[in-house]
Amino acid sequence: MKKIFVDYRKCVACKSCETACAVAHHPGGSLFALVGDSRTQVNVRVLGVEHEAFPVSCRHCDPAACLSACPAGAISRDPETGAVVQTPEKCQACAMCAMVCPFDAISFKHIHRALPGREVAYKCDLCHERLIRGEEPACVQACHTGALVFQESEPQREKRAAASLKVYLLGEGGEPPLFSMYRELRRRAFARRRMEEP
Amino acid sequence: MKIVTVGTGMAAAEFVQQLRLGGFSGDIVMYSEEPHAPYSPCVIPYLLAGEPPDNVYWKGRDFYERYRVAARLGEKVEEIDREAGKLRTVAGRVETYDRLFYAAGSRSWFPRPEWLEVEGVFGFKTLSDMQAIDGYIRNHEVQRAVVVGGGFIGIDAALALRHRGLQVSLVHCHDRLLERMTDADAGRFATARLKERSGIAFYMQAEVEALDTDHGQLQRAWLHNGTAIEAPLLIVATGFVPNSGPLTSDQRGVTVGDDLLADPRILAAGDVAVTRHALGGPDGLYATAPNAIAQARVAAANVLGSREVYAGSLNANVLRKHIDFPVISAGQFEGEPVTFTDGRLFRRVYLRDGRIKGYILAGDTRLSGYIYNLYVSREAVAGKIAAILADTRGESYYRSLMELAPAAISC
Lengths: 198, 411
What we know:
The complex is a heterodimer of chains A (about 200) and B (about 400). Chain A has eight helices and eight strands. Chain A has helices spanning about 15-25, 30-35, 65-70, 95-100, 130, 140, 155-160, 175-195; strands at about 1-5, 45-50, 50-55, 75, 85, 105-110, 120, 150. A six-stranded mixed β-sheet of chain B has the order 3-2-1-7-20-19, covered by helices on one side. Chain B has a five-stranded parallel β-sheet with strand order 9-16-10-11-12, covered by helices on one side. In chain B, helix 1 (about 10-20) runs parallel beside helix 7. The radius of gyration of chain B is 23 Å and the shape is globular. Helices cover about 25% and strands about 30% of the residues of chain B. In chain B, helix 2 (about 65) links the parallel strand 2 (about 25-30) and strand 3. Chain B has about 400 residues and is of the alpha/beta class. The chains are: A alpha+beta (about 200), B alpha/beta (about 400).
């Protein structure tokens, strides 16, 4: 199965992934349709921690704790792509899934696919409908820096993935010099800001 | 081999599904007092709030046909003869088995059983209860309801009825709600927030003493202190007893080992099973959906011939119904408490030997999965837990992953 791998050291927090995800999951399918729409669904969240940035989303664990915990039968595994997928019409937003997700990848909102007036749990669906059409996940396609990569994941890696996201971290290729410089500048800017704090 | 289940609840449905998916081709017979396909007890309260009726059937309405089950519905099992390997129903049917999967669940406990004779008084446990309540509300155009019991199920019931538009009063004997899921401070916090935000009228440290009826139908409930609550609907959610009678002749549940066997030919699981706690808590009835499902999977694997060991139950639970105010808790509230609160959130972890022994998180689900995993993995957290609890952005896991030091706590 192919999974989304993360090289957070290449993330420049441009949030292109968030925007692309929102457009891909919006019934309007365009950036303009998102404007002012509170039901917009963004399944990836670029989390800034000090000078680092990390695009947080579902890891589609196997076995998946959320899938085993759901008492509504609203979470299933897509047989073709291996994606852990939610069925919003069945979800009661009871938060059993969020209670056990190690990666804090599940949020709650009244999204477009939910029944009228109802909050549901939502998270990354690996763009499994795009994958069937032969496309990449929207966030990966939108990532300019190679921080998000969609690639094959070996089975033994997947077993460990349920316990730790580390198996999905890239970094074996080393950093291009420009990235190293950018990170260093960011680290210093952050350190300076912290010094200036009262 | 012929397998018989007593019950069609979550444990039994998961067990049967796993057997069929695992290639079991023998006869399967399922018994239930109720006339329904397997349903999710966690979903049924939402029926009262307008949920599409089919959503309760968590494994599909066609479960019995799909998994080739002979369903004996509306038939209550009264007696089990372990020696002979057969059971007998109230109606007198006798069924033999090679393996019995005993998952008869639990039933509402009524402090005053005679109240059940009053029209308008219901338990809050089964799909049949929900359908009866729904029908009663429609037929009598009910606008007001009283819920007795401020534990998980009572609050669940009150919020569901409130969501439907009823005026709801909740009567609870304690000075705070959810006293099993929370400690005193967290319980007070949750009670205050629910009072502010739920739209429910709470009567604390109160008990219903008497009911007024008119031609057998409920008119009002009288509290001990003389207060009368006008309402034609009263829901009793004061606790549950396991349906272990046919197997053990008592109401204390069925004790099973890590193989989920209660007897060489009888497996038990779900709300009726007394199991070991996974992380050193006492043995007990740990009646949650994830425990039932995990038990059913281990039981099915063992029937299919592999040797699987049940890792034990967890008493982790979350209440997040109809309003965005989740209360999450797990473990035992013993040891050294570490607390964070900012008015909106209340988070407390109990440490024992530097590891999480229990925790309560109210107001938000952020970080709850991370803390759950720190608890389950028995990781030493003494040095960083205060910073984790104070993290309102949900960055703690990613901070540790990127090998950044725990955040400094600003006061």
